[in-house]
């Protein structure tokens, strides 16, 4: 039984007073729309009781105060592209949407920073930075649809993390609303800082459990004028994954090193109606290098070509946007093959990514589900898409849990963790409790209790507080 109170007429009235009636909805169609994010398995879906669209930080704070007063849980939501059930209101209550707060407030070319509201779309931030000659280096594959607040909350990774790091590395400072409804500004536009706890880094990546991000100051970098995308095609898995350590050790400082197995090559090619060489039997490794100087690009190209060939590539092609189209559509392409699937987002030390892909691909051969493998290989981040297809719910649950029981301890034995970028959400809460060292888990729970004594903000995510 829930320890929360239901959303009463009194709560709805208080929300309407704070936000305006048009920004508070309880109709069945709206509630239905927000019962899930990217999760397709209906067993994870939960209806909210009310959905709200605050238009300012003060209004977000007002919602949190009301939620605390009436003991109602709040789930913050950006674009809902979470693949770990992060934006699902597992205890009902209020879903709080940030999409009205979508302004890019400032782009400062002298100081090389941008100030954005949490609801700004990631792609718009990237485009605005590029137009001014700068790079915003956060680049999840979902950039076209996700919002910056969602990226910061999950510490999103993506295609450029090999060179530039994840979202937390692109952020100077945030404004956030605390679980009890205070407004706080943490972080500063500084290169270094040893001034108390690094609270901005604590809130970033906390998956909306320690604060609702409402604004951020983002770092900009000079835009490299020279860029090359290369597609190395292998017909042998071992050789394809073997390329990764060779690339990293060569000191090429690539921007991206992405791996797609042949199952993904086929599904995404079919979905995009676009076939590149070795559709039938190829494993693709996409490598991007960027430089500030043309000669440097030339020399890196030569070096890359040599390394790929020495690693056993069947073909090494200069790639264009088509290859990125295939990469970006991988996840979507499996949706047409199976309505229900589950994503895994394991991370291991970079020097172990090849072993990990080899080993877990072998392990998966003992199961009857279909396994598709992708990797942000250059940063050790592995994605499995496991498709249910026609199997029964019982067999599906049994097979996935047995596979996880083999895969997770193996990943931890390599020094890895359960999630590299998607977060724990609601989906991996049990695994998080199981595989996290007890003292570390205790510290996390104590922090959560200290900041959110009534467990109002995004309960049921990361762990059970
Ligand atoms: C096709 C596809 C490709 C993807 N590729 C990548 C990838 O390359 N790299 C990657 O990291 N992820 C990827 N993802 C996962 C997802 O896009 C990211 O996790 C993204 O950061 C979520 O952003 P969002 O705006 O959709 O947030 P949501 O899904 O709405 O929310 C995500 C989590 O953050 C919380 N939250 C949202 N907004 C706020 C806020 N303002 N303050 C506090 N908490 C908040 C939510 O409660 C939830 O727990 C992909 C997803 C899809 C569907």
From TrEMBL:
The keyword Manganese does not apply. Residues 44-223 form the FAD-binding PCMH-type domain. The keyword Endoplasmic reticulum does not apply. InterPro entries: FAD-bd_oxidored_4_C, FAD-bd_PCMH, FAD-bd_PCMH-like_sf, FAD-bd_PCMH_sub2, FAD-linked_Oxase-like_C, FAD-linked_OxidoTrans_Type4, Oxid_FAD_bind_N, Vanillyl_alc_oxidase_C-sub2. One of its GO terms (molecular function) is oxidoreductase activity. Keywords: FAD, Flavoprotein, Oxidoreductase. Its cofactor is FAD. PANTHER family: GLYCOLATE OXIDASE SUBUNIT GLCD. This is FAD-binding protein.
């Amino acid at each position: 039984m829930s320890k929360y109170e239901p959303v009463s007429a009194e709560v709805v009235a208080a929300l309407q007073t704070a936000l305006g009636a048009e920004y508070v909805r309880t109709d069945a169609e709206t509630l239905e729309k927000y019962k899930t994010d990217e999760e397709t398995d209906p067993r994870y879906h939960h209806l909210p009781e009310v959905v709200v669209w605050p238009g300012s930080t003060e209004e977000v704070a007002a919602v949190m105060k009301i939620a605390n007063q009436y003991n109602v849980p709040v789930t913050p939501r950006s674009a809902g592209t979470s693949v770990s059930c992060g934006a699902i209101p597992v205890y009902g209550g209020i879903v709080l949407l940030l999409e009205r707060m979508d302004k890019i407030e400032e782009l400062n070319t002298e100081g090389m920073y941008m100030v954005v509201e949490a609801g700004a779309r990631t792609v718009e931030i990237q485009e605005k930075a590029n137009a001014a000659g700068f790079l915003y280096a956060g680049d999840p594959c979902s950039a076209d649809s996700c919002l910056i607040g969602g990226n910061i909350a999950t510490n999103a990774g993506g295609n450029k993390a090999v060179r530039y790091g994840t979202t937390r590395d692109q952020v100077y400072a945030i404004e956030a609303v605390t679980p009890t409804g205070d407004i706080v500004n943490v972080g500063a536009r500084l290169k270094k800082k040893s001034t108390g706890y690094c609270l901005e880094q604590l809130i970033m990546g906390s998956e909306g459990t320690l604060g609702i991000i409402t604004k951020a100051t983002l770092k900009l970098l000079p835009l490299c004028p020279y860029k090359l995308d290369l597609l190395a095609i292998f017909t042998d898995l071992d050789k394809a994954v073997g390329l990764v350590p060779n690339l990293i050790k060569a000191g090429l400082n690539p921007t991206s090193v992405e791996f797609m197995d042949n199952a993904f090559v086929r599904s995404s090619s079919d979905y995009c109606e676009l076939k590149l060489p070795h559709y039938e039997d190829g494993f693709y490794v996409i490598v991007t290098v960027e430089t500030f100087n043309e000669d440097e690009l030339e020399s890196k190209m030569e070096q890359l070509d040599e390394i790929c060939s020495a690693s056993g590539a069947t073909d090494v092609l200069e790639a264009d946007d088509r290859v990125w189209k295939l990469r970006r559509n991988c996840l979507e392409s499996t949706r047409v093959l199976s309505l229900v699937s589950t994503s895994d987002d394991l991370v291991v030390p970079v020097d172990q990514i090849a072993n990990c892909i080899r080993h877990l691909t072998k392990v998966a051969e003992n199961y009857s589900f279909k396994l598709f493998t992708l990797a942000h290989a250059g940063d050790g981040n592995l994605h499995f898409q496991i498709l249910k297809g026609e199997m029964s719910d019982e067999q599906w649950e049994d097979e996935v849990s047995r596979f996880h029981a083999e895969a997770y301890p193996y990943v931890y034995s390599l020094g890895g963790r359960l999630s590299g970028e998607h977060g724990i959400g609601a989906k991996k809460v049990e695994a998080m409790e199981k595989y996290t060292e007890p003292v570390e888990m205790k510290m996390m729970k104590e922090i959560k209790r200290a900041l959110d004594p009534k467990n109002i903000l995004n309960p049921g995510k990361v762990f059970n507080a």
